Amino acid sequence: MAGGSGERFWPLSRKNRPKQLLALTSDKMMIEEAIDRIAPLIPPEHIYIFTSEILQNPIREALPNLPPENVVAEPFKRNTAPCLAFAAVFLEEKYQVPASEISMAVLTADHYISTSSQFIQTVDKALQYAESNADLVTIGIPPVRPETGYGYIETNTSNSEANSIWPAVSFREKPNRETALHFLNSGNFLWNSGMFFWRIDTFLKSIHENLPSVGDKLEGLKNAIHNKTKTVADGAIPEAKPIFEQFPDISIDYGIMEKAGNVAVIRAGFLWDDVGSWDSLDRMQPLDDNGNVLNGKNVLIDTRNSTIINTSGKQVIALIGVDDIVVVATDDAILVCPKDKAQNVRQAVAALRSLGHDNHL
Questions:
Q1: Could you tell me if 265 and 168 are in contact, meaning their C-beta atoms sit under 8 angstroms apart?
Q2: In DSSP terms, which residues pair with 329 in a beta bridge?
Q3: In the predicted structure, residue 263 carries a pLDDT above the cut 90
Q4: What share of the chain is helix, strand, coil (3-state, %, to 5)?
Q5: To the nearest whole percent, how much of the chain has pLDDT over 90?
Q6: Nearest to 107 by CA among 43, 164, 35, 56
Q7: Helices 116-132 & 30-38, crossing angle to 10 degrees?
Q8: Once rounded to an integer, what is the mean pLDDT over residues 58-85?
Q9: Per residue in 199-215, pLDDT tens?
Q10: What angle is formed at CA 225 by the lines to CA 224 and CA 226, rounded to 5 degrees?
Q11: First to last CA, the chain
Q12: Which residue blocks in the chain are alpha helix, DSSP H?
């Protein structure tokens, strides 16, 4: 899934180049990293990107080794449940085999994952389990801090063995700090990674049972895309638009996972982080001696624990005597905020949009 707008990484992230097309955690774009991670297990011809119409061609240009017909545009932005329902129907139509014979790994284009070999081991076991069981499988990440920005998955065990698989007891929304500390200390709560694995027949059955506002329309959607999944599409498939437009805007967690009784969670054998905002980079980028993340032409004096990103070719950033700050400069925009306010950057984006400054978005 690569349709997000990445507004919390403005001004580097723009509507035609959101965070999945940025090199935030290495010298590669995040979507390139995602493809490289899974390539040892799944060849390019079986890797699909579901994205927005505006990002379809930029992603094709960024991933020249991926078949262009495998970059599919959603007709409308409708959150992750309709996106994945569309993906499942698309793949069933594309491969023309029973849905019980197609297993599907749902991965993300904008997460940090430490070790590719351990990631592959976890994904491989998750897929094998999903192929042998009528369960919806998700990856749970062992928490390393009392994180209040992530959802959690409760299991009925504190077993810490990597790649162990257990029934999911419940999904918990983003907690306050006290609750997050309890989750961390209990040992039987894992971070919700947003990665999923299932046979397509298992998933389609669950959509019909738990989200009929989508499930009842899937046969019509499949008919609408019949014979249109093997050619390069410029934009979304027109026949799918009237159906997709009727889908609710709902996430896969709310729409399916929290309701389903057949959810299993596999404990990740790798380190993971959600690259969600500028303040997350100090967990995955090298730091200078004062704990700063630096990129570009900068001069720092008595400055600590800050993130300074300068992609402008015309100016230098000089900071004196500041701590815990984010400064990001491009050729046409500058962001300055305390690091603990980095989650609020999208408010600046909304304000710019309301003022008609779309040329800066």
A1: yes
A2: 310, 334
A3: yes
A4: 40, 20, 40
A5: 93
A6: 35
A7: 60
A8: 95
A9: 999 999 999 999 999 99
A10: 95
A11: 22
A12: 30-38, 53-62, 80-95, 116-132, 177-186, 200-210, 212-215, 218-224, 241-244, 252, 345-354
